[in-house]
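Fig. S4 source data, part A: sequence.
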Amino acid sequence: MSEERKIGENFDEKTAGDIFDKLKNVEGKIKPKNEGKFKNISDLMNEANYLKGLGKNEEAIELYKQVIFALPDSQKAYEALIDIYQKQGDVEREKDILKKAIGNCKDNENFKDRLKEIN
Protein backbone atom coordinates (compact mmCIF):
# COMPACT_ATOMS: atom_id res chain seq x y z
CA MET A 1 0.00 0.00 0.00
CA SER A 2 2.41 2.60 -1.16
CA GLU A 3 -0.41 4.90 -2.22
CA GLU A 4 -1.20 7.38 0.51
CA ARG A 5 -4.85 7.98 1.31
CA LYS A 6 -6.07 11.52 0.95
CA ILE A 7 -9.14 12.93 2.60
CA GLY A 8 -12.03 13.28 0.19
CA GLU A 9 -10.45 11.28 -2.62
CA ASN A 10 -11.00 7.72 -1.42
CA PHE A 11 -14.78 7.42 -1.52
CA ASP A 12 -17.56 9.02 -3.43
CA GLU A 13 -20.47 10.42 -1.38
CA LYS A 14 -22.69 7.31 -1.75
CA THR A 15 -19.94 4.92 -0.68
CA ALA A 16 -19.06 7.11 2.28
CA GLY A 17 -22.73 7.23 3.26
CA ASP A 18 -23.03 3.44 3.04
CA ILE A 19 -19.95 3.00 5.21
CA PHE A 20 -21.29 5.51 7.73
CA ASP A 21 -24.64 3.63 7.89
CA LYS A 22 -22.84 0.33 8.48
CA LEU A 23 -20.77 1.88 11.26
CA LYS A 24 -23.93 3.19 12.94
CA ASN A 25 -25.44 -0.30 12.80
CA VAL A 26 -22.29 -1.84 14.31
CA GLU A 27 -22.66 0.47 17.31
CA GLY A 28 -26.12 -0.99 17.87
CA LYS A 29 -28.15 1.98 16.81
CA ILE A 30 -31.36 1.58 14.88
CA LYS A 31 -31.05 2.81 11.33
CA PRO A 32 -34.20 4.26 9.81
CA LYS A 33 -35.38 2.45 6.73
CA ASN A 34 -34.80 4.80 3.80
CA GLU A 35 -35.82 2.25 1.20
CA GLY A 36 -39.52 2.36 2.08
CA LYS A 37 -42.41 4.36 0.78
CA PHE A 38 -41.69 7.32 3.05
CA LYS A 39 -40.14 10.31 1.34
CA ASN A 40 -39.73 12.46 4.41
CA ILE A 41 -40.23 12.63 8.16
CA SER A 42 -43.77 13.98 7.91
CA ASP A 43 -44.81 10.95 5.82
CA LEU A 44 -43.26 8.67 8.42
CA MET A 45 -45.04 10.52 11.23
CA ASN A 46 -48.37 10.44 9.37
CA GLU A 47 -48.08 6.68 8.83
CA ALA A 48 -47.19 6.15 12.50
CA ASN A 49 -50.23 8.19 13.57
CA TYR A 50 -52.43 6.20 11.18
CA LEU A 51 -51.17 2.88 12.57
CA LYS A 52 -51.62 4.10 16.12
CA GLY A 53 -55.21 5.05 15.26
CA LEU A 54 -55.81 1.53 13.96
CA GLY A 55 -54.46 0.08 17.20
CA LYS A 56 -51.34 -1.33 15.53
CA ASN A 57 -49.18 -0.02 18.33
CA GLU A 58 -46.05 -2.12 17.81
CA GLU A 59 -45.79 -1.04 14.17
CA ALA A 60 -46.47 2.57 15.15
CA ILE A 61 -43.80 2.41 17.87
CA GLU A 62 -41.16 1.38 15.34
CA LEU A 63 -42.05 4.29 13.06
CA TYR A 64 -42.05 6.79 15.92
CA LYS A 65 -38.60 5.52 16.90
CA GLN A 66 -37.41 6.09 13.33
CA VAL A 67 -38.75 9.65 13.48
CA ILE A 68 -36.87 10.22 16.74
CA PHE A 69 -33.69 8.71 15.28
CA ALA A 70 -33.85 11.16 12.36
CA LEU A 71 -35.19 14.09 14.39
CA PRO A 72 -34.19 13.65 18.06
CA ASP A 73 -36.15 16.70 19.27
CA SER A 74 -39.49 15.63 17.78
CA GLN A 75 -41.85 16.36 20.66
CA LYS A 76 -44.85 14.91 18.81
CA ALA A 77 -43.14 11.55 18.32
CA TYR A 78 -42.17 11.41 21.99
CA GLU A 79 -45.71 12.37 23.04
CA ALA A 80 -47.18 9.63 20.85
CA LEU A 81 -44.81 6.99 22.26
CA ILE A 82 -45.53 8.10 25.82
CA ASP A 83 -49.26 7.89 25.10
CA ILE A 84 -48.96 4.34 23.71
CA TYR A 85 -46.88 3.13 26.65
CA GLN A 86 -49.22 4.82 29.12
CA LYS A 87 -52.27 3.11 27.57
CA GLN A 88 -50.44 -0.23 27.60
CA GLY A 89 -49.56 0.26 31.26
CA ASP A 90 -45.85 -0.13 30.47
CA VAL A 91 -44.47 2.27 33.07
CA GLU A 92 -40.81 1.30 32.58
CA ARG A 93 -40.81 1.99 28.84
CA GLU A 94 -42.79 5.18 29.46
CA LYS A 95 -40.12 6.34 31.94
CA ASP A 96 -37.33 5.52 29.47
CA ILE A 97 -38.95 7.55 26.72
CA LEU A 98 -39.69 10.42 29.09
CA LYS A 99 -36.02 10.55 30.11
CA LYS A 100 -34.95 10.65 26.47
CA ALA A 101 -37.57 13.30 25.71
CA ILE A 102 -36.36 15.45 28.61
CA GLY A 103 -32.79 15.18 27.35
CA ASN A 104 -33.66 16.10 23.76
CA CYS A 105 -36.55 18.53 24.27
CA LYS A 106 -35.24 20.66 27.08
CA ASP A 107 -37.91 23.37 26.72
CA ASN A 108 -40.84 21.01 27.28
CA GLU A 109 -41.77 21.04 30.98
CA ASN A 110 -44.65 18.60 30.41
CA PHE A 111 -42.19 15.72 30.04
CA LYS A 112 -40.56 16.57 33.39
CA ASP A 113 -43.94 16.91 35.09
CA ARG A 114 -45.14 13.56 33.70
CA LEU A 115 -41.98 11.81 34.89
CA LYS A 116 -42.44 13.24 38.40
CA GLU A 117 -46.05 11.97 38.41
CA ILE A 118 -45.14 8.37 37.65
CA ASN A 119 -42.06 8.14 39.90
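Fig. S4 source data, part B ends here. The domain at 39-118 is CATH 1.25.40.10 (Serine Threonine Protein Phosphatase 5, Tetratricopeptide repeat).
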